[in-house]
Write a structure and sequence with these properties.
Layout: H1 2-22, H2 40-52, H3 58-81, H4 103-120
Length: 121
């Protein structure tokens, strides 16, 4: 059950945390921020769906947990990978950058999903 709780926590981060961060002055309210798609809500719904879906077989249980791990962690991994691209930062200069203050949050939620699915599989 701890695994499902961790996966659910990860999903809540995707469903609400990422959206709330995007509503702030560094993203949607910033005229310098280029518009882009945010898939966190879709990934959060998918992670929740596969976390709590009843498997018919042990093999399906492992498969569902693998899907939950992927959908629950890919957003956080992509965010962390942004620092690998030249000129990309986690914080724009106008807001105190360079820096990546959200890195601990991304790591925490990403690990929550991965560890949760591992515990459940």
């Amino acid at each position: 059950m701890l695994g499902r709780v961790l996966l659910t926590l990860d999903s809540i981060g995707l469903l609400f945390g990422a959206v709330m961060a995007d509503m702030g002055p560094t993203h949607m309210q910033n005229p310098n921020w280029p518009p882009h798609a945010n898939l966190s809500v879709i990934l959060g719904v998918a992670a929740l769906f596969y976390t709590w879906r009843k498997p018919l077989t042990p093999r399906l249980r492992r498969e569902y947990m693998g899907i939950s791990a992927f959908t629950g962690s890919v957003y956080w991994a992509a965010g962390l990978a942004a620092v690998l691209f030249p000129g990309a930062m986690g914080l724009d200069p106008e807001f105190g950058g360079p820096g990546f203050p959200q890195a601990p949050v991304f790591i925490g939620f990403g690990l929550s999903g991965l560890i949760g699915s591992w515990l459940e599989a």
